[in-house]
Fold this sequence. Notes:
Two copies of one chain form a homodimer.
Chain A: H1 3-22, H2 29-36, H3 40-46, H4 50-73, H5 80-102, H6 109-117, H7 122-147, H8 156-176, H9 185-192
Helix pairs in contact in A: 1-2, 1-4, 1-6, 4-5, 4-7, 5-7, 5-8, 6-7, 7-8
Amino acid sequence: MGRSSTAQERLLDAACELLHIRGYSAVGVAEICARADVRKGSFYHFFASKQALTLAAVDSHWTVQRQRWQDLLGTGRQPPLERLRLLLDAQAAAQRADKAAGGTVRGCLLGNLALELSGQEREIQTRLAEIFEEQAALVRGVLAEAAETGPVAADTATARAVVAHLEGAVLLAKLADDPGRLDGLWPAVQRLVRAG
Amino acid sequence: MGRSSTAQERLLDAACELLHIRGYSAVGVAEICARADVRKGSFYHFFASKQALTLAAVDSHWTVQRQRWQDLLGTGRQPPLERLRLLLDAQAAAQRADKAAGGTVRGCLLGNLALELSGQEREIQTRLAEIFEEQAALVRGVLAEAAETGPVAADTATARAVVAHLEGAVLLAKLADDPGRLDGLWPAVQRLVRAG
Lengths: 196, 196
């Protein structure tokens, strides 16, 4: 790997980390460069702006996460709802791991940006909305499988409700700085997807 | 009402508005003063800092909202779950009204701040966490009433799950800039609070 691609990756990693911990408005290009150990002049060789870097960081984050979602939800030995449970457990475990490693529950990078950015930075918001739709589509796939053998709702609204519930539960866990708040996530989602 | 209390109220109103639209980090004292038509010197007569003003703005917002929650959930002619439905309908209506008046879904001021502030500004976060706990307690009260006559879960975890679900659904509606995303809120919450 060449020197320049290493600098680009360091910028992406630093952006993911700082955006997750401190948000979009509170973080500037200079701080990202300092954390990545990249000169500001080099920054603009890779990214036109903080917005462009944020878009790339969001994509990079979701590329890794999507693979995890697909692995956990993909057809395998477990029954479909059990795979949905594994996905939700993994989200809770990630919050517990953050708390153990960094001292605080950091929440979901995508959800944090979604609520911070409001009407500004429409391009980032559009990308975030697409990602949440991809998440709902993945959930819908596993619900459709489950609906073949049991009373499970597998419509788009229910799949979106699962994603919404996950984001809302992570919000409260982050605010309480307590990953234990996610202990009830699976029972709640189980009720949420029950048909009839 | 004296001149100084009017200036203080204008600062609170301007802060609520700007924090809601643009978030905490993106908004400065100068901008709040300009919108409130208050000189910066006067600002510090009322509030020690942007943080102090934000805390006061959050309290002022929740004081009004709490009264609405209590009015909608309080004992009345409607059965308890119907009152919960009225509360959720009112939240969806508020997002529709924002969209109609300002062109965008603004989401929930408290949820927006909760996800933006992260580990910073711990004092504001603590206050937000208390408010969401107050919301859960209000929801729990109405669930307890409903549980007297039907299969409804009325534990703290279920009440918190309702609040989480509302916040998550508002997040997705804000991101999609589509209040129609809240149309499924009540059916989802109905399933969420079903016992057994």
